Amino acid sequence: MGMNTAELTPIPPDFYLKPTRTVARELLGCLLVRHLDGETLVARIVEAEAYLAEDDPGCHAARGRTERNSVMFGPPGSLYVYLIYGMHLCMNLVTQPEGVPEAVLLRAAEPLAGIGAMRARRGRHALKDLCSGPAKLAQAFGVTLADNSGDITRGDFFVAPAADPPGRIAITTRVGLGEGCGEELLLRSMIADSPWISRPPRPDAPVIIEER
DNA sequence: GGAACGATTGAT
DNA sequence: TCAATCGTTCCT
Prior knowledge:
Blueprint: H1 20-27, E1 31-36, E2 39-51, E3 79-84, E4 88-95, E5 102-113, H2 115-122, H3 134-140, E6 157-160, E7 169-172, E8 188-191, E9 208-210
Antiparallel strand pairs: 1-2, 1-6, 2-5, 2-8, 3-4, 4-5, 7-8, 7-9
This protein binds a DNA duplex through strand 3, strand 4 and helix 3.
């Protein structure tokens, strides 16, 4: 059932040294894989956002290093997990060399395997309710604060290369940022026309389509 | 020490 | 449209 998960292997750390916008774009179609509690969870990434060290007031590291954001300053391929709104967790993949605090927020994915376990963790049945938002995705994959600073390039929680690369990619503004937080920057990437994204672009936001 | 706020979600 | 819910951040 589901899919063959035997040959899934991690993308190595060098991938996360590319420009962060590129990493966000190239993560589309890649597979998020986790072996957890005797299950293999797999989802195809369809939406991701870049957060930059320079000229990006929306980045958690925009005002320097703090206890919370310290993982962003760590090695590429690190997992940065944080609590938002006192009740949800968001999952980021750290990019750039140590000392450069950039990351990609994983925002949405298409569930492919381990659906039952995802449903149980989410408390929802519909496939579209499992991974269609950053906190939903984290919950479906059993992410906790204990996963913060983990290594996404090896072990039982990793990103594998795209088996089915996306065709058209849409680039637009990020979700949920207030005024003055870089809300106009085109740092959100998603698979164009994917039914698995968290939400459509704002009606007034520019959308750039890249053919592949 | 205290207050305001947030890279969200789910219900109304 | 709105409440939930609490750690982080920033101000006093």
